[in-house]
Structure formats: structure tokens, C-alpha cells
Amino acid sequence: MTVAAHHTERSAETGINRISRLGLVNEYLVPEDDGLTLIDTGLAGTSRLILARARTLGMPIRRIALTHAHRDHQGSLDALAAALPGVQVIASEREAPLLAGDTAPRDNEPAGTLRGGFGGTATRPSRLVSDCDAVGSLRVVATPGHTPGHIAFFDTRDGTLYAGDAFTTTLGVATSAVVPWRYPMAGLATWDRDLDLASARLLAGLDPARLASGHGPVIEAPGRAMARAIAAAARKLERSPDAAASPRR
User: Fold this and answer.
1) Domains of the chain with bracketed CATH
2) CA separation, residue 111 to residues 108, 162, 231 (Å)
3) pLDDT tens digits along 74-92
4) What is d(CA 32, CA 20) in angstroms, rounded to the nearest whole number?
5) Model-level pTM?
6) Which residue from 161, 172, 177, 248 is spatially nearest to 213, judged by alpha carbons?
7) Other C-beta atoms within 10 Å of 244: how many?
8) Residue 8 pLDDT more than 80?
9) 19 to 16, 40, 83: CA distances (angstroms)
10) Residue 243: pLDDT over 80
């Protein structure tokens, strides 16, 4: 895959810098006072486009924040870490072993099969985060379900929700708690569907101004679409759409 097969986009209204591979796999560069936070690194081979976009913005990448450890989100981590000496690499405490390729379950976790590719990276996180921690202007939101340590990032300045794979927006908004025909890949890679649905409810409760997911375009004013996606997933999972909003801890 060449750089020409990628594209970048920036919304003049929101300032969101989305980098997308084939319009399906997204990474985001979030400006801060000291430089850029990169959310996810995409598939292997995406590093050149990310670095080129950062140069266009005229700001250094200071942090790499991972929503989870699937290969399509950490595939260019090693290449970027090599190109950016001293860059801070951020992941959740639970996701760090998965990033290293250790898929052993924890005793307190629901029984379930880990799905999706987790191939180990040589790069290890230099900072581990938990729910409500701050990454620059981004608030960490623990959203287990798609993977055990999945996290999202909520920009407290403008209400942008960087949802990772808790939601997808390819051909419509959906949760990864189910496998929608429009874009089944995230749903096929989900570990615990009940937890994932609870995490989707938690994110919807933040009332984001826009939804920036790991797959698909950025959606403005996504509240109603998120609610419809949650209700549809709940019906498929035979759960009440009005169930409690907090993931099991």
C-alpha cells in the first residue's frame, strides 16, 4: 500500500485532523499547546502519511495515545516510535499486555474469546492511563468491551469524542456490540458484547458534539444516531435499550 492510497482531511469548522486509509481506518492528530497528540497509528505502513500530515501542520507529535491494541490501531506504532525519539506512548493499563501480545485473561474478567489481531509490538507504553485521566485536553473514558482495556478520548474543549471502535460510522453509525452488514469488521473483533453495549451507552451519555471513530467519517451532532445504534444493538442482543449506562467494573 502506498501513501497515494491514503488521504487526509481537516474540517475547517472543527479543526479535526483525520488521516484515513482507504476511507476506513482512521487516525487523528489533535493539536495541543505543546504539539500534537496522535490517536491510534493505523495499519502498518501508515507512518509516512502521519508524519507528513504533522509536518504540514507545523507541529511535532508529542504523544501517541492508543484506544486499543488491535493491529489496525497499533500497526505503525513501532515505525513511529523509531521516527519520533522520546515520544510518549499512552495506553490503558489493561491494554498494555495485549499490546505486547499477552492475551491471557484476568481472573475478574467475563469469560470470552479475544478476537481480532493483537500481534505484539516492540514498543512499550511509557504511560499507562485509567478512566478520567487527562491526556492534554483529552479525558480518558474507560470503554471495555471491544477489547478488555479499550478506551476513548473526549476533548473537553470542543466536545469531540474519539471513540476508537466502540462506535463505527462507515455507512452509518453503529456500535461494535453487534455485527452490522454495512461494516462488520469491528463487530467481528469484539470480545464482550454486553460490556461493549454498556460502554456505548456511557459514551452517548457524554452528549458529544461530534463523533470521531476508528472507522468511517466524522459525524456532527451524533446524539440521535448514537441512540438509534444503541437501540438497534440492544434489540439484537435482546437487552433493554434503557438498561444502566455504566459498564461493569
Assistant:
1) 3-113+127-237 (3.60.15.10)
2) 9, 27, 25
3) 999 999 999 999 999 999 9
4) 21
5) 0.91
6) 161
7) 10
8) no
9) 10, 10, 18
10) no
